[in-house]
Structures are given as structure tokens and as C-alpha cells.
Amino acid sequence: MEITEHSFSTDRHTSFYLSCGPEDGQLVIMTHGWPELSLSWRHQLSFLGNLGFHAVAPDMRGYGNSSIYDEHTAYTQEEVMQDMLELFNHFKKDKAIWIGHDWGSVVAWNVAIHHPEIVKGVASLCVPFGWGGHPERYLPYVDRDLYPEDEFPYGQWDYQFFHMENFDIAKNDMENDPYKMLKLMFRKADPASRGQMSPTALISKMGGWFKILGPDGLNSIGDVEPDTDVVTEEEIKVFGDHLVQNGFFGPNSWYVNGHANDKFAKVIDRFEIPFPALLIHAELDAVLDTKTSKMTNLTRAVCTDLTEKSIVSGHWMAQEKPNEVNQVISNWIDGKILLGP
């Protein structure tokens, strides 16, 4: 079935979204992460739509054709939850299956704990359960053999601290050439990189994003060919055009509200996800080492009906290994939601 474009507005926010499948089908809402778009779910939209689901993927706030805001506080998870409630209510359904990736996973997990009444099941690509809190809580999971504390105090999470402490520098580093940045980032993982240090641990040491390429960051190198196993040149242009138009203030602001997100999470007395949950591990994701660290322990404690699957993929799993991702999601929905107890 065809993927179609839509938009709707409330008094507080405008949401653009892509849709595929019959409107009377089971609603599936997929939320993207940084620095992506609803387009990131193109493979899953068409797959689920053709199976008879009503598959929907919004541009999150600060991205694409959805509302853009010029204050950091506009990008807290509390604000995003209101966006998601408005989006859900727009479809007049009882419940939805929520699927997220990267920051979109944080959104899906937050919907599950703050608004369980609208959730039939929740799935996450790469990211274990969390609410988008301050990254200091990730530090106990850093592999100190790979990232000695005296040299890499923040481990692979250094980039998040850099966003908070040097927001304008990080924003400007990326705005130098969003197209080139995306071509460098949206690449499949090299299996030989398994167990090696993530470049995200070096951002502070180098004095900014992409400074490992040279003193002028992105401007230190020529153009880069896209990895067409992940994205085409045409798709890079769509992603890049929106980032040129909107800038990185919004996308990067998602990283600077950790304390506010921690406070928002504290309104929940007890974390529990009693409906089906799915975590798909990306075995070659250098930052989210969910397979060998204790990072997933909280997910296993919170989710009472958790399914875990692994795909040999890097971080951009939905685009790098779409067929495998689609099959895992389909099997989980069939077994745990449609045919579950």
C-alpha cells in the first residue's frame, strides 16, 4: 500500500505524520530518534500497512514538518507525551502498539508507563527501558576496561555531556553541513568494530563533533558517498533539507532536559509494564551495549512479559536490516498481541 502524508494541529502543537494501511486496522505508532524523521520508518510503514495494520510515524517535535520550538524546555518528555496523546486521540482508537528507536524508544517507554491505558504493546529498537533522564545514570554501565575512568570519565556517553555543556558548539558543528554529517552517520556497522571504542567517547577530547576528521570538522573533508544499504542519496536529501531548514536546536535540545525528565518520571510510584514488550538488541551498536552489559537489567525487571531478540546490526537497525526487523516485529505482534492470552 502507498505511504501517505498527513498533518493535524491542536492549540498547542502541529504533528506531521506518515501513514500506511487501512484506517480501521490495529493502530501502530512508530516514533523516530535523533537526528531522523518519520521517513526512518518507511520500510516498517509499508510492511505493516500491507499486513492490514494502520501504521503511523510522526515527525517528532523539533523535526521535519512538525512544530519547531526555540526554547530547550519545549523538548522535555512531559511535552512530548502531550504530543503523543494528541496524536493518539486523533485516530479515535482504544489502544495502539507503540514502537520506538533511539529517542523514539524513550518516547515509547514513557507512553507505556505514563499512559498504559492507550498501550496494547510496546517495542524498542536498540534502547532498553528508560525515561530520558540525566546521562549520569548510565555511567555505572560503562565498560571501564574499554573506557578507563581517568581518561574517559563519561565513556561512550561523552557526547551527551558535551551536548549539555557545549550546546552551541555541538549545534554549529552539525549545521556546517547536515548532508555530509548524515552520510557519515547513516552507515551500516562494521562487524570488525565489535568490542571497539565508540567515537562518541571522543567528542570532548577532540573539542567538538567531527573534529576527529580535522580541525574544521565536517569542513575538513570532501563529500562522502552515502551507504545505500542504509539510505539513498534521495533520502539523504530529504533528511538534510529539513535539518537545513529547521537547524539542530530542536533535535539537540532533547539531550539537555535530563533533570526535568527525571522529575517527570518520579510521578510514577512504581515502574511496571504489564503488557507485551519487545526489545530488539543491535549487536553492533557501539553505544548501546545491551547484550553484554547490565544495561538491560531494569528492562527485565520492569517488563512482566518481555521478549528479547537480537539482530546483527548497527544503530540504524530499521533502515540497515529492515527485513529482519519487520519479521521480528511481525512475529512478536502475532504471538504476543494478536494471539496472546
CATH 2nd-level architecture = 3-Layer(aba) Sandwich
Radius of gyration from the CA trace? 19 Å
Q: Please name the CATH topology.
A: Rossmann fold
Shape: globular
Quaternary organisation of the protein chains: single chain
Mean pLDDT: 96
- Note the total helix count: 13
CATH class: Alpha Beta
CATH homologous superfamily classification: Alpha/Beta hydrolase fold, catalytic domain
What is the terminal separation in angstroms? 30 Å
Percent strand? 5-15%
Helix content: 25-40%
Description:
With 341 residues, this protein is an alpha/beta fold. The chain has a single domain (4-338), classed as Alpha/Beta hydrolase fold, catalytic domain (Rossmann fold). Helices cover 35% and strands 14% of the residues. It contains 13 helices and eight strands. It has helices at 42-50, 77-90, 103-114, 158-165, 167-175, 178-185, 203-206, 233-246, 249-253, 258-265, 297-302, 317-320, 322-338, and strands at 4-9, 14-20, 27-31, 54-58, 96-101, 119-125, 277-282, 306-311. It has an eight-stranded mixed beta sheet with strand order 1-2-4-3-5-6-7-8, sandwiched between helices. A hairpin with a 4-residue loop joins strand 1 and strand 2 (14-20). The longest helix is centred in the last third of the chain and has 17 residues, at 322-338. The two termini are 30 Å apart. The mean pLDDT is 96.
Summary tags:
eight-stranded mixed sheet; 341 residues; globular; alpha/beta
